[in-house]
Amino acid sequence: MSAVLESNHPRPGQASTLFYRLLDKLLPRLRRRLPYTRFFDNLYHRLLFLKKHHRFPRQQMMWNDVWFQIKTSGEIENPLRVYVSDKEQVKDYVRQTIGEKYNVPTIAVLRSPAEVDRFDFPARCAIKPTHASTHVCLRSNGEPIDRERIKKWFALNYYRSGRERNYRSLQPKVIVEPLIFDTTNVEDYKIFCWRGTPKFVMVDIDRNINHTRKIFDPQWNEQDFSMTYPRASGALPKPATLEEMLRVARALSAPFSFVRIDLYTDGQRVLVGEVTNCSANASAPFLPPAAEQYASKLMFS
Predict the structure, then answer these.
(1) Who contacts 1 (Cβ-Cβ below 8 Å, separation ≥6)?
(2) 18: how many CB neighbours lie within 10 A of its CB?
(3) Which of 273, 247, 255, 299 shows the shortest CA–CA distance to 81?
C-alpha cells in the first residue's frame, strides 16, 4: 500500500494559495448570510468541499464525495437519519434494535433553561445538547457548573452553524449522563459501515489532551493513514469486545447506506455513543491525501 500513499498532489502556487485564503474568509459570511434553503445549503457545501479538498465534489465512489452526496440529497432528511441525530432519540433506536444494555444511562433530559437552573447536577457527569454535536461539559469532581453556558445551548441551531439539514427540525434539549466508564478520557471507536457491513474502525486517542488516531480494518490490521488528526504512534491492542462491537455496528447500520457508528468499550462492556450521518461534514482530509483513493476502494467494494 505504501506506493499508493505517496502523494502526487502538486504544491499550490501563489495565486492558488491566495484564492483559498480568500475562500476561507468568505465561507463564514456565506454560511450566515445565504438563504436557508436546500439550494443555498448545497452551494455552501460545495464551496466548503472546495476549501477542504482543493477540488469540487464529483459523482464518484470516493470517501468524501459519498458523504457529500448524502448530505446534499434527500437522503440526509430521511426520517430515520433525522431521528438518530437527536442524542435522546438515538437511545430509542438502540433500545429497539439491539437492547437497552448498549445505551449510556440517562440521568435527566432538561427541556428548558428553567430546568437547568433547578437541576442538581451530579458531582460526576457529562452534560451535552441533544440537538447538536461537539458541545459537552464534563464534571468529574463537583466543579462549579456553568449554567449560563448550558442555557445558551437552547438557542443553538446546529443546522444554521453547519447547514447539515438532518439537524434542522430537532428540538433543543440538554441531556445529563454519567461519565462513560467513570472517566473523562475514554477511547472512542468509530466504525464506518457501508450497507450494513463494517469496513474500518477509527480509534480516537487522548481526544481531550493530544488528539491522535489509528485506523484498522475489521480484522484489526492497522492502516498506514489517518484522517484530520495525526496517526498515533505505538501499538494499540485489539479490544476484547471487538467482535461484539462489529455485531452492534452491523445491526445499527443496516438501514443506512454510508454511516458511522460511534462506540465505547472498557474491554468488558460496549456502549453506543452516536450514529453519525455525515462524518466530519464530508470535510475530513486524509493523511496523506492519496490514501483516500485506497480507503474508498476498500470501503465501497
Answers:
(1) 223, 224, 294
(2) 11
(3) 255
Peptide bond into 288 cis (omega under 30): yes
Q: Which residue shows C-alpha cell 501499538?
A: 235
Rounded-to-integer distance, Cα 119 and Cα 142, Å: 14
Cβ neighbours of 205 (radius 10 Å): 18
The set of residues, in sequence order, having a beta carbon less than 8 Å from that of 62 and lying 6+ positions away, is: 292, 293, 296
The predicted model scores a pTM of: 0.92
Q: How far is CA 142 from CA 113, 183, 250, in A?
A: 21, 14, 38
Distance between terminal CA atoms of the chain? 17
Which position has the grid cell 445558551? 152
For residues 252 and 94, the answer to whether their CB atoms sit within 8 Å is yes
The amino acid present at 46, given as its one-letter code, is R
Encode pLDDT of 135-157 as tens digits: 999 999 999 999 999 999 999 99
- Per-position b or e across 245-267, b if 16+ CB within 10 A of its CB: bbebbbbbbeebebbbbbbbbbe
Cβ neighbours for 102, distance < 8 A, ≥ 6 positions apart: 94, 248, 270, 271, 272
Distance in angstroms (rounded) separating the CA atoms of residues 53 and 60: 15
Cα 57 from Cα 241, distance rounded (Å)? 37
What does the alpha-carbon distance between residue 77 and residue 90 come to, in Å, rounded to a whole number? 15
pLDDT in tens, 20-77: 999 999 999 999 999 999 999 999 999 999 999 999 999 999 999 999 999 999 999 9
SS3 215: strand
CA separation for the pair 110, 129 (Å, rounded): 9
